[in-house]
Design a protein that fits this description.
By secondary structure, this protein is of the alpha/beta class. Helices cover about 35% and strands about 25% of the residues. Its EC number is 4.3.1.12.
Length: about 325
């Protein structure tokens, strides 16, 4: 059995290739049972989360990701999310590879948002607002830049020093990135607004949004968390990565549906529908679109397969 390190996985998963791998797996499908979601007490500090995420393509590959989410980890100098993926032969069950899950999770999550933006953001989107400064933030920026002609990136975070640090990192990669102080002003100027936070209170307000924008929400992975208010999902056409995940776990959709501010049928399509042509995605330049993701095991499977096959197998 091969062991693919974080460095090997990072090199294998370039965003143009990974976006297309995700497009293909959503188009072709894979078996994906509901993921196991367990709360792990953590005293003192915020409780952690244990996720077990299996998926397989009959006769080809079987994958299972074991992931943990501990919100207090950044204060310890550790990433919030840690994971590994075990990839097996789909015909024999033979273990093929243990794939470093940290870069795989970050990259497949960002690639899913980029895939959605390919259907939902205006083709000429040039200004990106990145809300959040954690480990996911630079990946989200790189992924969006792979599918849209982004010319400027504004970075907002609760800690200005972290926003400056992220902007410096992106500038070092040749991107035109700048920290900003006002989130509302940043929203007003953005074509694409990408949020990667652990927020439990709305950050993006619907009254700030204007026609033509695309809102990408990848934080708020629990029903108790959210990055937008009710007004945001009311003024936008709403999409998600999978109905099964986003309508159960994504607080940005769960909370307004529970309150009656949003109806289930108002969530127009998921990535299965978009990639299979069952829904056209954005239909007009003046439309506001909103995409909520909570992650899916078939994304991990697609990324693990790509990394494994590029490792010389």
């Amino acid at each position: 059995m091969k062991v693919l390190s974080a460095e090997q996985v990072g090199r294998a998963l370039d965003y143009p290739s990974l976006v297309e791998a995700l497009r293909a797996v959503f188009q072709g499908g894979a078996e994906m049972p509901p993921r196991h979601h367990h709360e792990v007490p953590n005293d003192p500090g915020a409780d952690g989360t244990l996720l077990l995420m299996p998926a397989w393509q009959t006769g080809r590959y079987i994958g299972i990701k074991v992931a943990t989410v501990f919100p207090d980890n950044p204060g310890r100098g550790l990433p919030s999310v840690m994971a590994n993926v075990l990839l097996n032969d789909g015909a024999t069950g033979e273990p093929l590879a243990l794939v470093a899950g940290q870069p795989l999770t970050n990259k497949r999550t960002a690639a899913a948002s980029a895939l959605a933006a390919d259907y939902l953001a205006v083709p000429h989107a040039r200004r990106l607002l990145m809300v959040g400064t954690g480990a996911m933030a630079p990946e989200m920026v790189r992924a969006h830049c792979a599918v849209r002609p982004i010319e400027r990136i504004d970075v907002w975070g609760r800690t200005p020093d972290k926003a400056q640090k992220l902007a410096n990192t992106l500038q070092g990669e040749g991107l035109n990135a700048h920290p900003i102080d006002s989130l509302e002003a940043g929203v007003a100027q953005a074509d694409v607004i990408s949020c990667a936070t652990m927020s439990t209170e709305p950050l993006i307000h619907g009254d700030w949004l204007h026609p033509g924008q695309h809102v990408d929400l990848m934080g708020a992975f629990k029903p108790t968390m959210r990055e937008t208010d009710d007004r945001a999902v009311q003024v936008a056409d709403v999409f998600c990565d999978t109905f099964a995940g986003a309508l159960k776990e994504g607080g940005d959709l769960v909370q307004p549906i529970e309150s009656g501010a949003l109806q289930r049928e108002d969530v127009r399509a998921d990535l299965f529908d978009l990639t299979q042509g069952k829904h056209p995605g954005r239909s007009a330049d003046d439309q506001i679109t909103l995409f909520k993701s909570t992650g899916a095991a078939l994304e991990d499977l697609a990324a693990a397969i790509l990394a494994y096959e590029r490792s010389g197998n």
